[in-house]
TrEMBL record:
It comes from Pelomonas dachongensis. Its cofactor is Mg(2+). Pathway: Cofactor biosynthesis; (R)-pantothenate biosynthesis; (R)-pantoate from 3-methyl-2-oxobutanoate: step 1/2. It is found in: Cytoplasm. Signal peptide: none annotated. 3-methyl-2-oxobutanoate binds at D48, S49, D87, K116. Its EC number is 2.1.2.11. Homodecamer; pentamer of dimers. Mg(2+) binds at D48, D87, E118. This is 3-methyl-2-oxobutanoate hydroxymethyltransferase. The active site is at E185 (proton acceptor). InterPro entries: Pantoate_hydroxy_MeTrfase (IPR003700), Pyrv/PenolPyrv_kinase-like_dom (IPR015813), Pyrv_kinase-like_dom_sf (IPR040442). Its main location: cytoplasm.
Length: 268
């Protein structure tokens, strides 16, 4: 048994290049951070989905930078090995690249190893500004929950040729600007697999098929404690398990084995 080391960007890039799947889950506090770390989750996302699962809201837009800082601090205290990514919330990176730097640097000071922002095209300049100054950035493309209203609802992105070409173009722009990671939400599996195959950086998917470099789910969804109807890409990993640790380990094993997601069941 080799000693487990702190997860790093080069290691994540190596996993992507070697076809070793990356397991990621959202996390918002120290107790779960420690449990997910023990279960072998490679990356924890302090997601602005805390709006939905912690705050009982219907949208991620009202989440504040202070909310994100508080939860990032809590998560980082519970982590020994995992790579911590924090979402830049709505209205914390839009007005200028300088504003984005201030928000991102605050998240780094709170313990984030990387920040994630939503959208392509206009964000490239911001991605370059942060990356060149030493903050690793993940670019979230496809369905972007912060701008659900502009997208006309909770919809798959990249279905038609024009929309697919846009995702390809915006991925390329993000990579050229220095993005260290991409995340696709609700993108057709074939499109995500095709881009991932030639991407120089890892591509994490949620509702984007098994062909991505890795997977992420909202923790409360995979533990089946989110009330109401769940998105198609969710699977209940507590089914048949008698502990949270066993459920999370089941997720890690399934992602690593490529047995989750099943495109015909969880994909678009
Ligand atoms: N609990 C939770 N889970 C999430 O995955 C999640 C959040 N919250 N909050 C932020 C965003 C919002 N997300 C969502 C929310 C709803 C759908 C949804 O209703 N999807 C439907 C329709 C898709 C379609 O066919 O166009 C689905 O069946 O998946 C998808 C993603 C993903 N993120
Ligand atoms: C759904 C994932 C990718 C996310 O951004 C979040 O949890 O906030
Ligand atoms: Mg988010």
């Amino acid at each position: 048994m080799t000693e487990r080391k702190l997860m790093t960007l080069p290691r994540l890039a190596q996993m992507h290049a070697g076809g070793e799947k990356i397991a990621m889950l959202t996390c918002y506090d120290a107790a779960f951070a420690s449990l997910l770390d023990e279960a072998g989750v490679d990356m924890l996302l302090v997601g602005d989905s805390l709006a939905n699962v912690l705050q009982g809201r219907g949208s991620t837009a009202p989440v504040s930078l202070d909310d994100m800082l508080y939860h990032t601090t809590c998560v980082r205290r519970g982590v020994k090995y995992a790579f911590v990514v924090a979402d830049l919330p709505f209205d914390s990176y839009h007005v200028s690249k300088e504003e984005a730097w201030k928000s991102a640097a605050a998240l780094v000071k709170a313990g984030a190893h990387m920040v994630k922002l939503e959208g392509g095209g206009w964000t490239a300049e911001t991605v370059r500004f942060l990356s060149e100054r030493g903050i690793p950035v993940c670019v979230h493309l496809g369905f972007t929950p912060q701008t659900v209203t502009s997208l006309g609802g909770f919809k798959v992105q990249g279905r038609d040729e024009v929309s697919a070409a846009r995702i390809r173009r915006e991925s390329q722009q993000a990579i050229e600007a220095g993005a260290a990671m991409l995340l696709y939400e609700m993108v057709p599996a074939a499109l995500a697999a095709d881009i991932t195959a030639t991407s120089p950086v890892p591509v994490i998917g949620i509702g984007a098929g098994v062909g991505c470099s890795g997977q992420v789910l909202v923790l409360h969804d995979m533990l089946n404690i989110t009330p109401g109807r769940k998105p198609r890409f969710v699977k209940d990993f507590m089914a048949g398990k008698d502990s949270v640790l066993a459920g999370v380990k089941g997720y890690v094993d399934a992602v690593r084995a490529g047995s989750f997601p099943v495109d015909a069941v969880h994909g678009f």
